[in-house]
Design a protein that fits this description.
Order of helices and strands: HEEEEEEEE
Strand content: 35-45%
Distance between the termini: 135 Å
Number of strands: 8
Number of helices: 1
Helix content: 10-25%
Low-confidence stretches: none
Largest sheet: 5 strands, mixed
């Protein structure tokens, strides 16, 4: 009886080894036309929703404006030094404050191919207080906030 059970166990073991050695259908990969299973070793990534902006365009802005000198003698020039965020155009308006209201004296629009610019103001200004306003424009026509500086013209 022991020999019979050993013979049956041996037959079962050989049958099991023969099945294990043969190619299994489940390990050959997915059938043709089916989507493959994801790789379990790669981290999971979530694609972004929509498309992000390609490049964020800077709006025109006057970063710094300085009058040199702020107090000038009549018949002499003052210079306006301006630093811009982006190249574009710069509009400069000089107004004279007289008796509670302002009179526009001088206006210029200059090209600003670089981000820094020095503009010479007119020397034929009468004595008094002046307000110098600078506004930057870009190619699309967008404008910056107005930056104002005070200029004082004193007698010769």
């Amino acid at each position: 009886m022991i020999t019979r059970s050993i013979r049956i166990a041996t037959c079962l073991a050989t049958a099991g080894l023969a099945l294990a050695a043969s190619d299994a259908l489940a390990t050959e990969g997915p059938p043709t036309g089916a989507t493959p299973l994801p790789n379990t070793l790669q981290p999971v990534t979530v694609p972004p929703v929509g498309s992000p902006p390609a490049s964020r365009k800077l709006r025109p802005r006057v970063q710094r404006a300085r009058l040199v000198p702020r107090r000038v003698r009549a018949g002499h020039r003052s210079r306006l030094r301006v630093a811009l965020a982006t190249p574009g155009r710069l509009r400069i308006v000089v107004r004279r404050t007289a008796r509670g209201h302002q009179v526009r004296v001088w206006t210029r629009t200059v090209a600003a191919p670089n981000r820094t610019l020095v503009v010479r103001l007119p020397k034929r200004l009468r004595r008094g207080h002046y307000r110098v306003t600078a506004v930057a424009y870009d190619g699309d026509g967008a404008r910056s906030r107005a930056v104002r500086r005070m200029l004082l013209v004193v007698r010769r």
